[in-house]
């Protein structure tokens, strides 16, 4: 029978499973979001940072019973597995890629709202297929939401400059995580001087992260006093 349902598979996403001894406690000391908030219908967007508080990886954490599934960029999956394994030491924890797919729909009742912003649509995990969905990147960017190494960089941009505070990507009352000291200092002193912003496409400059000619958009790392022309959705707060 031919499948006539619309495609939903995000072909650029992959899964990692973290299982074993005190998995939540292990991740709690590493990632920016409170892992105890991850529930069956409550995925959480989080980052793994450098000691200076700069983004290395961003991902969504999903409940998987006694384990946690990490929904990450396909191209970053192996690097993220290696990075997390460095912190495992002698703990009885398995960190490994697993089969499966991440799915998205702009509307409907499937899955749960994206933990960053409900307007992004709904997201769920299932089997991967051969019918990738279209429209996700444009929808996300027109809402001003950035993600992934091409936009956030790796060890280049501070996590709060990635709009993590506004998009529910950081918990300030959960205890320590890698990069927490600088991240918390910026938060409490309101010292976020730059932001990642989506802007209409133009000439590439020193603060341009990536251009999307097919969408007429690009991502720039701008000072907060240079926001002219940027996509400024109501969820953005200017310091």
TrEMBL record:
GO biological process: iron-sulfur cluster assembly
Keyword Transferase: no
Keywords: Transit peptide
UniProt keyword annotation of Transit peptide present: yes
Protein name: Aminomethyltransferase folate-binding domain-containing protein
Highest taxon in the source lineage: Bacteria
Database matches in SUPFAM superfamilies: Folate-binding domain
Regions crossing the membrane: none
